[in-house]
Structure formats: structure tokens, C-alpha cells
Amino acid sequence: MKTKSKAIAVQTRKNIPAAGTVLIANARNDITIPYYSGALQHADDTLIQRGGGKGLKIYDEIERDTHAFAMLQKRVKHLIARDWEVKAASTSALDIKAADFARDVYTNMISFDRLTEDMVSGAMLKGFAPTESVWARDGSRIIPEDVVTHDQRRFVFDENWRPRLLTWANMRDGLELPDRKFIVHRFGIKGNNPYGLGLGTRLFWPVLFKREGIAFWLHFLDKYAGPTVVGKTPYGVLSADQQKLLNTLQGIRTSAAVTVPVGTDVEFLEASRSGSVTYQDFLAYWDKAISICVNGETLTTDIGSSGSRAASETHADMLDLLVDGDGDLFSDTLREQFTTWLIEYNYPGAGIPSVYRLRPSNEKEKAEVRKAKADAATAENNAIGVILVTAGQIDDDKIAREYVTSFGLTDHLSDAAIDNLVEARFAFMEGGKRARDMREIAKTSATFAALFDGVKKKTMNA
Fold it and tell me: Number of C-alpha atoms within 13 angstroms, CB side, residue 334?
């Protein structure tokens, strides 16, 4: 007998086109980057339009607004309050040693919470945050002696996203910096823009409008507290006398009494307006816009008059999602830069461990999930019990199995578990499995059938 041999496909080496190994749409030919030179320029429209000579300094003014500052701090502190852990790249001895070393560095050699706060808050507001690492030798190890966060205005980036330091001697392209020296965390990266896009570009306008609204409100309060004084003089009064009267009226707010010439009428022009919209409503609108921009919600800050506990818990979940993202992005930054440098210096060849913040467990939510699972399991068990009672009326195992599996409640069970369920139906069958077996024999033997029928009748009469 001849057997046909199947041809085994040989895995051949795949060729990659030359163009597939390089970035074609790069910063050098990017039409969206203005005034390209040796250093890339900011692509932040707000910064370009309003920055002027201040540059990124305009975003520091956002933190002068109490509500905006509180919202930014709330999001960052929410991340800092979480516990953190270091996870080894694998279970190999070398990778575990590398993870233990990274854990020791982040615990004892640098302030990990301060590093997280400085870099995450700086990048969140301005798009990027540069931090310089100062290395030192400790025996056979190379360790960070200090990490220092710098002002973003001192740095620019080249086409490869490498930071360059602006100095008095080089204010355009900046000085080239050494490798493994500056950590750069970015927020809101789009396209070939290494500067990122922080929340400052969106918060600038609500804070500006709110500031202008407060100025109008203060002007209104000033008018309301001290009405405008109107002095009416008779015709023919000399200009010098009119000026003297004006000087007298200007001091009326702080004077207990004033004298005016006979025939002069003095009136107060009261500030008044109509309508239901107030300056407070105007400011509350922008505060709400700031809360939504930073935290994605409002009820964890101000529940208002129409909020509820359920709604505030939903809003808290939204804040947790944003903080989760902040933590994940910073974890990626550390793993790609600082942690990689640590391990390559001290444990070459080891896998790079990950350091990340842990989301606190919601015990109430866990209890609700457990209760829901228990209720679902109880309902499923009751349903299976009803099915087995009915299946207990079926003698044939194959048909009984088909009936039991037809309801979809056993889809997650193994064949062995289903077989046991089919076997368990005998507990609901009259006479159990032995009676079923006797009925099966009776179907093939008339003599035994007559005998079985007689035994059955005696049992019933007894």
C-alpha cells in the first residue's frame, strides 16, 4: 500500500523593503512644523499666538487660579497616593536581581514620589518635563546621586527628539547633550512634535475668561458699594468752579460731609441691571469647564444641588481612568529611559523591569461582584437541578445527554463533568439506575419482562 507523503513547507527568510526600515514622514519634511531649523519648534497654537516673549511661562500663570491649581493637584496627588511596585522582566535569576536593584534605587536612593510629581505635573501642564540625572560610583555599581527637574523653557529638541540645552551663547539650536543624562516625560504627543501638548493649551482660555469676568465683577461691586455721584450746576457757572465742585464730589465717598455752592444739585447714580444671569454663574461655568478639562468630571469636586452619590461614584471612576493613564505613561517613560540606563550600567544583558503605580482595590465593588457571582451561580444550579429532574424521566443516556446540554448551561463544562451530570439524573429517577437497567433488559427479554412486571406489581401492592 502506497502512502502519499505531504510536502512540508520550508520557512524561507523574509525580505524587508529598504523603505520599510526607515521613517519616511519625519520631522525634516513635516509641513506642520513651523520654521524648521536644527531645533524643532513648538506646534502649540495657544503658545504661538499668546506666548510672545514669555513662552511657556504663560502656563505658569494658570496655576495662579485657585480652582485650576486645585484640579491639577488633585489629579497628580491621586497618582502619588497610590502604592507602587517593581516587576521583574522574567523569573530568571539575573532579571530578579536587576528588579531588586531598581527597587532599591527607587526606594532608598531617590525620592520616587517627588520624581513622579515633578515630571507628571510638569508634562501634564506644559507637554514635557526634563529631568537631569547625576550619576555616581558606589563600589562596583553606578547609582543616581541625584535627579533634578529643570524649567522646560531651557530646552529644545532636534529632529530625533533628543533634548538640547539653550544657553546665552546658543539661544536658537541649543547645545548637544550627552546620552543617559536627561529623562524627558511627555504628555499629549501628536505627530512629530516632541514637545507634547499639555493641558495648558486648553486651560489658558477658561482661566483668561474667568480672570476677565472677575475684573468686571469687581468693577460692578465697586459701583454698587459706592454709586457714581452726579453734580448739576446752574447755567453760566465758570469752568474753574465746575472743576472745584468735581474735586469735592470725588472725595464724597470718604467724607462724612461736603459743602457745595447754593443751587447745585447732587444725585447718586445707582448701579442696576435686570435678568437672571449673574457674574457668579459666569465664573461657575468656567470652573466647571476647568474641572472637566483636567479630571474629566465635576462631581468629585462640587456635587452641586442636583448631584447624587451614584453619579459622584461614576465621576470618580472617570478620574481613576485618567490617573491610570498618567501612571502607565510615566511607567513607560521610566522603563524606556531611566530604568534602562540603570540596568545597562549595572546588570548588562538583564531584562528591563517595570515600575508602576497600583490602582487601589475597591472593596465595595469587589463585594458586589462576589454577591452577583454567587447569585448567578445559585440561579444556574437551580436551573440545572430542574433540568436533571426532567432528564430523570429519560432512560437512554445519549438522549438524556442531548437534553441536558440543549439549554446552554453546560457549555463551560468539560465532557467528563457533563457525563457526571447525566449520571446524576438517576437520583431523580424512580428506582434509580438499577430500575433503569432492569427496564432495558426487559425490553430485550419477554420472560424477564414478565418477571420484572410481576415484581413491580408486588412492590406497588406492598
Answer: 24
Lowest mean pLDDT among 79-83, 228-232, 284-288, 418-422: 228-232
The Cα–Cα gap between 213 and 183 comes to 40
CB 21, CB 146: distance < 8 Å: no
> 312: part of which helix (H) or strand (E)?
helix 309-336
Q: Which of 233, 242, 123 is CA-nearest to residue 184?
A: 123
Q: Is 357 helix (H, G, I), strand (E, B) or coil?
A: strand
Q: Give the 3-state secondary structure of residue 170.
A: strand
Tens of pLDDT, residues 273-300 = 665 668 888 898 999 999 999 988 766 5
| pTM greater than the 0.85 cutoff | no
- What are the cell numbers at 373? 457571582
> What are the CA-CA distances from residue 443 to residues 298, 376, 449 (Å)?
76, 42, 7
- Region for 432 from its dihedrals, namely left if φ exceeds 0, alpha if ψ lies in -120 to 50, beta otherwise: left
Write down the residue that cell numbers 495657544 correspond to. Answer: 46
C-alpha cell belonging to residue 314: 461614576
User: Which residues is 266 bridged to in the sheet?
Assistant: 231
